């Protein structure tokens, strides 16, 4: 069972769980992912909630559906997620971090690893 935060919708947390599995290499490109029902049972939610996550993952090009067979990790999904996560970090987390560093009188040199 997954422990959910009240800060984000459950479907979004499942989306992020799957994205992190792809990004970490746990789920490789071309690999079949859990069915909607399997994932729902695994995390303890309604299959409709998982389906919403899968639909968004599919729309974002992270997974694709082969009718009658299941969902698979898309080619290029890992790099695509990395780009999305970098942008999210730059837009949402970095400004907060900069503000906090400034308030504390700290500086930090940050390099981007390519």
Question: Could you characterize the architecture of this molecule?
Answer:
The chain is mostly helical. It has a single domain (10-104), classed as Winged helix-like DNA-binding domain superfamily/Winged helix DNA-binding domain (Arc Repressor Mutant, subunit A), CATH 1.10.10.10. The protein is built from four helices and two strands; from the N terminus they run αααββα. The protein has helices at 10-24, 36-43, 47-59, 77-104, and strands at residues 63-66, 70-73. Strands 1-2 form a two-stranded antiparallel ribbon. α1 (10-24) packs across α3 (47-59), α1 packs across α4 (77-104) and α2 crosses α3.
Short description:
This protein is mainly alpha-helical and 114 residues long.
Describe this protein with a few key phrases.
single chain; 114 residues; mainly alpha; Arc Repressor Mutant, subunit A; two-stranded antiparallel sheet; 4 helices; 2 strands
The total of helices stands at: 4
Low-confidence stretches: none
Task: Give the mean pLDDT.
Answer: 92
* DSSP, total strands: 2
| Rg calculated over all Cα atoms | 17 Å
Query: What is the helix/strand order?
Result: HHHEEH
By CATH reckoning, the class would read: Mainly Alpha
Topology:
Blueprint: H1 10-24, H2 36-43, H3 47-59, E1 63-66, E2 70-73, H4 77-104
Antiparallel strand pairs: 1-2
Helix pairs in contact: 1-3, 1-4, 2-3
């Amino acid at each position: 069972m997954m422990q959910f935060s009240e800060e984000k919708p459950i479907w979004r947390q499942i989306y992020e769980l799957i994205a992190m599995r792809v990004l970490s290499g746990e789920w490789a490109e071309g690999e079949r992912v859990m069915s909607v029902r399997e994932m729902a049972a695994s995390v303890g939610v309604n299959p409709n909630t998982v389906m919403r996550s899968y639909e968004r993952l599919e729309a974002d090009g992270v997974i694709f559906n082969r009718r009658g067979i299941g969902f698979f990790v898309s080619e290029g999904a890992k790099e695509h997620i990395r780009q999305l996560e970098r942008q999210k970090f730059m837009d949402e987390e970095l400004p907060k971090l900069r503000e906090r560093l400034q308030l504390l009188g700290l500086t930090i040199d940050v390099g981007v690893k390519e």
